[in-house]
Amino acid sequence: MFFRFIRQVARVIVFIINGRASYEQRDKLPKDTNYILVAPHRTWWDPIYLALAASPKEFSFMAKEELFKNPILRFILTKAHAFPVKRDNPGPSVIKTPVKSLKNSDLSLIMFPSGTRHSDELKGGAALIAKMAKVPIVPAVYQGPVTLGGLFKRKKVTVRFGDPIYITDIPKMNQEGIQEVEHRMMTAFEKLDKEVNPDFVYIPKNKKS
After folding, report:
1. What is the DSSP string of 74-137?
2. How large is the average pLDDT for residues 172-199?
């Protein structure tokens, strides 16, 4: 209930600030199973747009442990299906918690395989979780403003979903298996970006001249 309420509040706020976003290929989202929704992390509000685009599905997501130290913020995050993760030293719970949720609830999972907003390096968490929970990975991309100023200038926002990535053909999530899943995700991201805009090139804010 709280997640749906927060999502509606977010929908109104981003509409007022930026206008109507374009959500493309929503038919790619699985209807009868949980899944892991993955995307390159390009700005702090792209998870909001992903959750809005995939509505009415509800999601859990990871948040850095420090945010849970504030009691008010901890209440909001917990009610919004977030769970804490130690960024410097993530323990087994970073895998076990989402696997349990994917198996035993109606919550799917939003993940950014690259971790930080300005990293192109994929990490193996999404692959391990998908394999253990036996769920598909759905790739998506956000294209739009990456600065707050751009958001308020109502620059166009597009979220596009791709075909689910099934990994049942990969027997083990060893280094080779994880690399194969990462390759499939990266290929999907590149394909989706080109479909939205053939000339798209993502330039992180801290790399702009």
Report:
1. HHHHHHTTEEEE-SSS--THHHHHHHHHHHHSS-EEEE-TT-STT-----SHHHHHHHHHT--E
2. 94
- Summarize the confidence of residues 27-41 as an average pLDDT: 95
Tokens of 135: 């769920």
Sorted by sequence, the CB contacts under 8 Å of residue 169 that are 6+ apart come out as none
Q: Please determine, for residue 206, whether its predicted confidence score (pLDDT) is greater than 50.
A: yes
How far is the C-alpha of 67 from the C-alpha of 159, rounded, in Å?
27
| pLDDT tens per residue across span 85-111 | 876 666 677 889 999 999 999 999 999
Dist CA 84 CA 77 (whole Å): 9
CB atoms within 10 A of CB 19: 11
Spatial CA neighbour of 170 closest among 183, 153, 159: 183
Q: Residue 9 burial (CB < 10 Å; 0-12/13-18/19+)?
A: exposed
Residue 28 tokens read as 């790619």
CA–CA separation, 185 and 189 (whole Å): 6
Sequence letter at residue 132: M
pLDDT classification of 209: cutoffs 50, 70, 90: very low
Q: What does the block give as tokens for 114?
A: 């690259």
Pick from 143, 140, 136, 141: nearest CA to 181: 136
